[in-house]
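sanity check this:
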Amino acid sequence: MNAVPPGPYRIFQGDADAPPRLAPEPADDAAVLATLDPHAVAVRELLRPAGPPPAGRTLEVFSRAWFEELEAKRYAAPGSWLRRALEFSRHPHDTMLMMGPGAGTDALQYQRHGTAVTICTTPDDCPALIRRNFEQRGLSVRVGRAQADGGLPYEAGRFDLAYLNWLNAPPPDAAARVAEVYRVLKPGGKVFVLAPARYDAGLWQRVLTPWRFRFAGGALSDGPRYSGRALRRLFGEFADPLTLKRHLRRSELPYLWRSSPLGVMQRLMGRVLVLKAFKPIAAALAGPAPLPRAA
């Protein structure tokens, strides 16, 4: 991965062969970033529930040091599982479609290990924030935009990998999104999905202690929650689906279980459901897929 010289970066829309256009001027991005709540950005990136911002912070917002601190905290406990589950270092030279990038922290990890990442944004995303994160590191990234009807502006069989983060920006039509991701993946391609877990610590606290329920964790997401079975059913066209539960703080456990091994408990009642699955190799024998829909 080569660093790029200072200056405007090219943002690619749709296919790699499409003519590039210049990114917005820095002043335009600065105006967009000025409208963001940095604390809200941080708690989403750190997989934490909303709460009051910490006092006494001195780092300049959206500076390189601010992004680096966010990155360090995202992969520290209890988020250390992210590096293993998302396999940052195992896909050099592969191409990846990423949706739900947040501030782009995970995209940075893949690119550092040689994965060619293309971020496809929706109205819930902020391309200016992603650009700022990459520019602060002297890097660039391809950024496209999903079509208004939910379609993806890429040809069939374009990508080796797909990353879908539904924790903060679930798609309005999950089945249609899954079908589009299936279309743009190569046969044998792999998909990673992060979604809110239905049977998490909060649910078990409500079941076990309804008379004194007060879930210390708060909600990670307002989006639909999934059981492992429901998520595997949604990705039914994919082969070899594997679901994992991860992400849990000890303070979020029911009181009587707080002395239990945290690694075991997060597998039983973790707050994030991870799915990994493959597009079947046999899909290559099904004939040519339809062309992407026009924008």
